[in-house]
Amino acid sequence: MADDTRKLCRLDDIPDGEGKSLEIEQDGEVVDVFVVRQGDAVHGYHNICPHLGTPLTWVDDEFMTFDRKYILCAMHGAEFRIGDGHCTAGPCQGDNLDPFPVELDDGWVLQKP
Ligand code: FES
Description:
The structure is a single chain. The chain is mainly β. The protein starts with 6 loop residues before the first strand and ends with a strand. About 0% of the residues lie in helices and about 40% in strands. The protein is globular, with a radius of gyration of 13 Å. The protein has one domain (about 5-110): 3-layer Sandwich (Rieske Iron-sulfur Protein), CATH 2.102.10. FE2/S2 (inorganic) cluster binds next to loops.
């Protein structure tokens, strides 16, 4: 059974190919993170663009390019690989999103310990 203290959301709460905005508490502070679903896999990142250090999106859950192949920063159009957060296009090309490790257990997306 999934560890309640690490539960973020249900996998079914995230449409396949989309992202989901989440707020977590870390060291007494609220931190914005997001997870992207690809089938039965999820990838998590902090919601901070390496270009200017701002959130990637102005609208909750809107993290993807139109073709759903990349994570998009809405500010200046940087594109990041879903699997490892590496920036492949845009003003911070070569930089990486800060990972937020997640895992799946019994249909739950969990924060990795
Ligand atoms: S702040 Fe993300 S591309 Fe500029």
